[in-house]
């Protein structure tokens, strides 16, 4: 089971960025947490972060034929990007959406998730744990197929 884990814009500033919302742990800590979770759950992972929408589209396309699933936190592009939605639909890999915060409890413009429309599951508001839950979901899904 090979998973591509994508993090979108401003997540590289974790720890600095609005710590009251996103926590004090930095992005390196998140990457370590994701790698550890994958190792413990028996998945291989490739991590990708970008602040650029097109680069995220390219990363999703690069998963085709190489990866078994995608975990994605598209960050602000969640609420704006039809291109990321289309890329997820195009590769048609099982995908899970993650958000550190609970987007349903925040401003109304965060209630719409385009990427989520191409994802089998969403974990929001669980902090780092959401990534682990997403990996676990995809690993277990793989076992039943
Ligand atoms: C986020 C939620 C988004 O609304 C926001 O733009 C982000 C981070 C989250 O992980 O909670 O950048 O995806």
Written description of the protein model:
The chain is α/β, with parallel strands linked by helices and 145 residues long. Helices cover 37% and strands 18% of the residues. The chain is built from 5 helices and 5 strands; from the N terminus they run βααβαβαββα. The protein has a 5-stranded parallel β-sheet, with helices on both faces. α4 links the parallel β3 and β4. It is globular, with a radius of gyration of 14 Å. The mean pLDDT is 97. The structure holds 1,3,4-trihydroxy-5-OXO-cyclohexanecarboxylic acid.
Q: What is the topological layout?
A:
Layout: E1 2-7, H1 19-22, H2 27-41, E2 44-49, H3 53-62, E3 69-73, H4 82-91, E4 95-99, E5 121-124, H5 129-143
Parallel strand pairs: 1-2, 1-3, 3-4, 4-5
Helix pairs in contact: 2-5, 3-4
This protein binds 1,3,4-trihydroxy-5-OXO-cyclohexanecarboxylic acid.
Please give a handful of descriptors for the protein shown.
145 residues; binds 1,3,4-trihydroxy-5-OXO-cyclohexanecarboxylic acid
Describe the structure in brief.
Helix content is 37%, strand content 18%.
- Overall pLDDT level: 97
**How much β-strand is present in the residues?**
15-25%
Q: Enumerate how many helices there are, as a single number.
A: 5
Order of strands in the sheet with the most strands? 2-1-3-4-5
State the helical fraction: 25-40%
The structural class is alpha/beta
């Amino acid at each position: 089971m090979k998973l591509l884990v994508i993090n979108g814009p401003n997540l590289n500033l974790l720890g600095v960025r609005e710590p009251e919302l996103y926590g004090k742990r930095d992005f390196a800590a998140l990457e370590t947490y994701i790698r550890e979770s994958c190792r413990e759950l028996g998945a291989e992972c490739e991590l990708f972060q970008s602040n650029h929408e097109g680069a995220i589209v390219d990363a999703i396309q690069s998963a085709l034929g190489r990866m078994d699933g995608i975990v994605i936190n598209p960050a602000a592009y969640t609420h704006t990007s039809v291109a990321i939605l289309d890329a997820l639909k195009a590769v048609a890999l099982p995908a899970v959406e993650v958000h550190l915060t609970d987007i349903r409890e925040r401003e109304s413009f965060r209630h719409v998730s385009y990427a989520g429309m191409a994802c089998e599951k969403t974990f929001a508001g669980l902090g780092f744990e959401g990534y682990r839950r997403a990996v676990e979901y995809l690993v277990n899904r793989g076992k039943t197929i």
